[in-house]
Amino acid sequence: MRRRRRFERFARRIALVSIGLALQGATTGDPRLGLSAQAEIQSLPVPRLPEAHSPPAAEDCGDRPHFSEDDGMVTLDIVNPCRRGAAIDVSADGMRLRANFNGEGLAEFVFPLFHERTEVAWERADGKLDKTPVAFSGFKDAVRIALVWRSHVALALHVVEPGAEIGGVAGHIRVESKASKGASTLGADETAMSDAEPFGSLEVYSLPPVGNPGKGLLSFFVEFVSRGDTPAGLFCGDGAFASPDFEIWILRYGELQKLQRSIAPAPCGKPLSEKIRIQRIGDVSLAHG
Asked: Which of 20, 101, 205, 271 has minimal Cβ neighbours within 10 Å of its Cβ?
């Protein structure tokens, strides 16, 4: 129940927390579209963090960070009543995250890790950089698939678990909205992460060790949501957003692999089949070795 409550807490926060990846030379686009992303990930040797308790009330104007980590999902609460309403950026594992301090002076973040050791950094109220090391518990047992993109479009990650199929009632997970297409058969944590800031977009599927059967394949797909069923305008032919690039990050039992791919352009005005709309990218074996 602890894991489910943690992800329910994440779902409640997503309207307030912007999660993305730092983009060099980002440009603006149609506000209806998704945002851009680019990442450089670094792994730093750091010790494991102890479990954190609920943040105490802050009496001064210094930032009070409180971390907890569970199977590579980090919860970070920063308390500073003097920063009510202010925005704060946090960088971690190549990602750049943004949140606002609420009326009680609390800024909340939830984000995934992709390396065994990561340094989390943010700018304090006095302008100095604060850094805290975080370790990924169970890193060697983790299976995680992430979709990252830098184009100004909306994409969606789909994962099909062993024995399931696209469109199935169970085992076909559209990470953007797990209620829209089936339920996990493996007890996976599905997290959707998208931005309201020009940092980028990231969606993640995580399979906890307790639900991992140790055999079979996870198949992953990418849907070009902005293009819809019948491409038109900028999303078809030679349009500016007809062929977006994206990355797939695969964390499997302590090894991280990054794939660079792109969506093939489609002709304008022609309805697309499901196979074209939801393109298969590859598979991840759950077998060890």
From this structure: 271
Q: HSE-up of 35 (CA within 13 Å, CB side)?
A: 22
| Single-letter code of the amino acid located at 222 | V
CB 38 within 8 A of CB 105: no
The domains found in the chain, sorted by start residue, are 2-31+36-135 (2.60.40.10), 139-285 (2.60.60)
Residue by residue, pLDDT tens for the chain (289 residues) are 445 444 444 433 332 223 344 333 333 333 333 322 222 222 223 333 444 444 444 457 899 999 999 989 999 999 999 999 999 999 998 788 889 999 999 999 988 999 999 999 999 888 899 999 999 999 999 999 999 987 889 999 999 999 998 888 788 988 754 444 455 666 666 555 544 344 578 889 998 888 899 999 999 999 999 999 999 999 999 999 999 999 999 999 999 999 999 999 999 999 999 999 999 999 999 999 7
In angstroms, the first-to-last Cα distance of the chain is 31
Q: Quickly list DSSP for 223-261.
A: EEGGG-SS--GGGSTT-TTSS-EEEEEEEETTEEEEEEE
Tokens coding 67: 């971390």
Sign for the pseudo-dihedral over CA of 21, 197, 221, 253: positive
pTM for this prediction: 0.75
CA torsion, ordered 156, 157, 162, 168, to nearest 10 deg: -10
